[in-house]
């Protein structure tokens, strides 16, 4: 194996998130040596429309990879792995971008994952009751690709739909740009396109929803060749891509992943021996990976298919080859916290205090809450006992699977001080944790036996968010040794494609490392049971109000 060679080998992981492209140079042991990041442009031409450019994204991929590989020889880079948001890329027959909005600007050819323009199309697809819906929790989400494709056909038939020759998930677009291979990763087509590895495309589904034209030429527009995540794509980097990335032609490229799934690879398989965790010496199916950033994903795997109402999946080989994946999620988490905090009238005062103390605003808020709790002689988390948030400001992804739900706050006072802002922030974080508990309960009822949570992503760096999740769920939380676990997960794909590791499972165990374990405070369990009861009642009352208004 290459690991016996005295020359140190590296792998490049590239993560295309919602707002930026990041790259990392990662060792065989999973240590991140260098990282680089560049922001990408987002256009918002209409309400619920979010659009990007595949040209812009690829350019940022190239520049960040060149930056992180500056200090090593090209032949030391053994493999490259890409992950990205599950956004929809549209190209014409010459592989040029096709506009996805009425403005007609071709460069703006990516319908972002969080674009909810196709909510009505998603509802219509759900109403068909087609059998493929059983693999997405029974409800089609507007964040998946079939409703987005249907919206394009119904609204841009004479432009986008006429000119489009290739519809790709963004992770597959990146693999194609790197290798010229149109092979789709099972992660993308299974999780976001209703593809089934054993049954292939279900032609009756596409016909039933009015997209039978995608069946032409052996499904060429949506892909007719698939591969497992981490398997080698094509012949590796093409000459053109290698020149753009600053790497050698033929460097191995692993079949890509959706960004949240890469985060799962970067944490869930870590060796936990010596940490006294309940998942030690237990199957990997006792673990759940939680990737928490702008939104959050809750990834649980099983040996056989488990059908969880309102939770996506089961997906065969959706993250780990030959294992089934269920994917819960919250459409707005980090973005919700930002929305609540930055929209408060006391936000300028918060900024001023944070700048004065040389702190990030959330570090200041956490410290401010600790000070308030000390003054009152009460546990910090009890400060928001009478303040409750329903966090679905951007709809509920899981387990209610209702994109029409909206947020609610109960218990607001007339005052709007910095203390009030801190308490609203606390109640929002608690609501997100209770949302995670709601998802866990649905998974448990369907047969999952999860004993330990593995967190990564931007919110996992917020100690209050982490501790509240441990307390609200009653489960220990594992944080990775490398804070950039998503990038490690992407690098795992390159390591597998290079054949330096024999499987995804082996690469995960060797490259993912435990950094810290956070235990729940069981003395707060009773408090969170009461809070959870109020949380669920908020949802019931909100649906009743909406039904009354729509009657």
From TrEMBL:
The keyword Kinase belongs to this UniProt entry's keyword annotation: yes
Segments forming domain Carbohydrate kinase FGGY C-terminal: 288-497
Species lineage: Eukaryota, Metazoa, Chordata, Craniata, Vertebrata
Keyword Transferase: yes
Taxonomy, superkingdom: Eukaryota
CC terms in the record's Gene Ontology section: cytoplasm
Matches recorded under Gene3D superfamilies: 1.20.58.2240, 3.30.420.40
Residue stretches making up the Carbohydrate kinase FGGY N-terminal domain: 10-266
Protein name: FGGY carbohydrate kinase domain-containing protein
Family annotation (CDD domains): ASKHA_NBD_FGGY_D-RBK (cd07782)
InterPro entries hit by this protein: ATPase_NBD, Carb_kinase_FGGY, FGGY_C, FGGY_N, FGGY_RbtK-like
């Amino acid at each position: 194996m290459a690991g016996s060679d005295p020359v140190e080998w590296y792998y490049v992981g590239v993560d295309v998130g919602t707002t930026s492209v990041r790259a990392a140079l990662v060792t065989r042991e999973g240590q991140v040596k260098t990282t680089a990041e560049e922001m990408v442009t987002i256009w918002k031409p209409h309400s619920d429309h979010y659009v990007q450019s595949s040209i812009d994204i690829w350019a940022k991929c190239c520049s960040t990879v060149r930056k992180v590989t500056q200090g090593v020889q090209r032949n030391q880079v053994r493999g490259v792995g890409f992950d990205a948001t599950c956004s929809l890329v549209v190209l014409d027959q010459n592989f040029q971008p096709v506009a996805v909005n009425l403005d007609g600007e071709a460069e703006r050819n990516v319908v972002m994952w969080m674009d909810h323009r196709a909510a009505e199309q998603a509802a219509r697809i759900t109403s068909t009751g087609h059998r493929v819906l059983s693999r997405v929790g029974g409800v089609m989400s507007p964040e998946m690709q079939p409703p987005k494709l249907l919206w394009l056909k119904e609204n841009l038939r004479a432009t986008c739909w006429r000119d489009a020759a290739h519809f790709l998930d963004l992770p597959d677009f990146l693999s194609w740009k790197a290798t010229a291979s149109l092979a789709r990763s099972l992660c993308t087509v299974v999780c976001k396109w209703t593809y089934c590895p054993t049954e292939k495309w279900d032609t009756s589904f596409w016909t039933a929803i009015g997209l039978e034209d995608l069946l032409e030429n052996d499904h060429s527009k949506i892909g007719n060749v698939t591969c497992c995540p981490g398997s080698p794509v094509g012949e590796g980097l093409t000459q053109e891509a290698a020149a753009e990335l600053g790497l050698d032609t033929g460097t191995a490229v692993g079949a890509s992943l959706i960004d949240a799934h890469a985060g799962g690879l970067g944490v869930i398989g870590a060796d936990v021996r010596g940490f006294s965790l309940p998942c030690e010496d237990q199957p990997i199916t006792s673990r759940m990976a939680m990737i928490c950033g702008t939104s959050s994903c809750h990834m649980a795997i099983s040996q056989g298919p488990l059908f969880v109402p309102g939770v996506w999946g089961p997906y065969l080989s959706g993250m780990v080859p030959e294992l089934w994946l269920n994917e819960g999620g919250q459409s707005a988490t980090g973005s919700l916290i930002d929305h609540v905090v930055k929209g408060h009238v006391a936000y300028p005062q918060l900024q001023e205090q944070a700048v004065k103390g040389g702190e990030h605003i959330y570090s200041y808020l956490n410290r401010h809450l600790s000070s308030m709790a000390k003054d009152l002689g009460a546990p910090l988390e009890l400060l928001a006992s009478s303040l409750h948030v329903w966090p679905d400001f951007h709809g509920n992804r899981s387990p209610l699977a209702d994109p029409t739900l909206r947020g609610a706050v109960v218990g607001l006072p007339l005052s709007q001080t910095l203390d009030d802002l801190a308490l609203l922030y606390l109640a929002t974080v608690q609501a997100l944790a209770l949302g995670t508990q709601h998802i866990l309960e649905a998974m448990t009822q369907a047969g999952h036996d999860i004993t330990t949570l593995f967190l990564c992503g931007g919110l996992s760096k917020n100690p209050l968010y982490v501790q509240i999740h441990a307390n609200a769920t009653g489960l220990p939380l594992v944080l990775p040794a490398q804070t950039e676990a998503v990038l490690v997960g992407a690098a795992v794909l390159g390591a597998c494609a290079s054949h330096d590791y024999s499987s995804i499972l082996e690469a995960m165990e060797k490259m993912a490392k435990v950094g810290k374990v956070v235990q729940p405070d069981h003395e707060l369990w009773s408090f969170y049971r009461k809070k959870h009861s109020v949380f669920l009642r908020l949802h019931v009352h909100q649906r009743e109000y909406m039904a009354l208004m729509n009657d």
